[in-house]
Amino acid sequence: DTGVSQNPRHKITKRGQNVTFRCDPISEHNRLYWYRQTLGQGPEFLTYFQNEAQLEKSRLLSDRFSAERPKGSFSTLEIQRTEQGDSAMYLCASRSVGGSYEQYFGPGTRLTVT
Amino acid sequence: DQQVKQNSPSLSVQEGRISILNCDYTNSMFDYFLWYKKYPAEGPTFLISISSIKDKNEDGRFTVFLNKSAKHLSLHIVPSQPGDSAVYFCAAIFGDNNNDMRFGAGTRLTVKP
Prior knowledge:
Chain A is mainly beta and 114 residues long. Chain A is 0% helix and 49% strand. Chain A has no helices and eleven strands.
């Protein structure tokens, strides 16, 4: 299966701790997106990369959040000093530039901050 | 700001009948619309899309209709099957950048055997 993969699938952490999630996109896709989804809502855009360049960040992405895609392949999303309000599903998606507009999503990482 | 709205949180239909899921948007600058389906513990899966220059797109049992004057789109599933039971999200993309998608809150469809 060559779809988008995310690790870990679940993460439970205590408030104030740092967490890091990983996303491996579909290999030929040069755009990679991060979304956050809370209960009863649709996914909300956080940031996106084209190759290794981070080109856009949502105002939802506070300074405690940082994302990287160092070699234009996998990406990491780090949350520092987690808060209970950070509890959500974090989704990664990818697509290729010039292709169709649909983004392909991974299964997500569910974060619970206690 | 909720630019894409799905006002029905849930819908229940009988197997074999038509399912109609609705979506409204507020920003006339959206130029591409998509429907995604989501099963529990999985990420959203692309279903069907439509460009703003069209008013209908069909793919097998799934048809999306776009009414630009009303800023409304709908997804029709005919005939509905129990395996269609999932949460359906409407999404929209802005013009040239086509970067971030704006999603509605989703409608949970239940198809009863």
